[in-house]
Write a structure and sequence with these properties.
This protein is mainly alpha-helical and about 140 residues long.
């Protein structure tokens, strides 16, 4: 997780604790100058942190994978395609390095915007991780 987000989640944990304080957290973040999009990201991380800690599950870094688009990627992926890839990463279907390979392959192979169909086609070939040849289906157990 990004160090700044990690510090904010720790601060929220100290100030507010339980998840029934969402409105107070949002109000506090607004008073600190965060915009709506940032507040949504921060509150999501805070709520995930609470649930992970209460359930005694794996660390937050593993439970809430985040991948932010770089400058060369912005505008290249449709929101659906980007969400599809992040969903595969969050579900554990793609590891961090595998996600990077898929993204790079899409950027090299697709002219214009990458659609969810493009992303599915690359993931479905199974070739993105070096485990098969083009056209060979990916088998996920």
């Amino acid at each position: 997780m990004e160090p700044r987000l990690d510090r904010l989640v720790a601060e929220l944990r100290r100030r507010f604790g339980r998840e029934d304080h969402v409105a107070e957290v949002e109000a506090w973040l607004t008073s600190q100058g965060y915009d709506g999009g940032q507040i949504g990201t921060i509150v999501s991380a805070w709520l995930t942190d609470i649930r992970v800690r209460e359930a005694g599950e794996r660390p937050l870094e593993e439970a809430w994978p985040v991948r932010v688009q770089g400058p060369h990627e912005r505008g290249r992926f449709t929101p659906e395609a980007w969400g599809y890839l992040l969903g595969l990463r969050a579900a554990g279907t793609l590891g961090a390095m595998e996600l990077e390979h898929v993204i790079e392959r899409l950027l090299m192979q697709v002219d214009g915007r990458v659609t969810v169909e493009d992303a599915r086609a690359v993931v479905d070939t199974g070739f993105w991780d070096g485990s098969g040849s083009p056209g060979e289906p990916l088998i996920v157990h």
